Amino acid sequence: MGAKSPCDALTFENLFFKDLHANDFAKQQYVRAFKKRPHLSKIKLDSYSNCTYLKAGEVFESKAYNELERRYVSALSLTYDLFVSIYDVNTRSTAAARFVNFDRTVQHYFEGFVKSLRRPALEVRVMGMQDNQQVSTLYGLADMIAQHRLEVFEVDLFGKNTRHIAIDMATGMSFNVLVEDRIYKPGELENKMTMEQFEKGLKA
Description:
The chain has 5 helices and 11 strands, in the order αββαβββββαβαβββα. A hairpin with a 5-residue loop joins β10 and β11. Helix content is 23%, strand content 30%.
């Protein structure tokens, strides 16, 4: 047998590309991660105004993080939208976006960030959406990841729960935010909002 090409490697990005076209994709929660996401209290995020909170349609960028800046960027009450971060280990730079559709604006934002870095070591994290959503918005994102040969470190998609996520801009790590500063009971985070209600909220 011949040598395997880089596209055959069992990396998270290649598994994601393959699974994206499976018939049962989006039917249940889909997770690819090196370890379970740790918890972080919202009190810690709000101490000394240490966090930037993103709403759907917003982006955030931090170049060469230092201890005088806000340390976290967060997406609370994440349901039908996506929260994507790209972190450069070499410079401790972060680009994050919260969006419903991966359109040209979001693509150009991320590509501009990637192209602005010299010899980066990038980590991509993709989180959000609910069971049975249309996966077409993920195709453009997957194409961008493949085109720029980005490494995927975490994918957490679909399921029935609301997510509260924070990214540590000093390390690139993701956290589950404990909004009420306690561990949630089983089923407590189940999303009760319909897609129609979510879309109305975007227009409000």
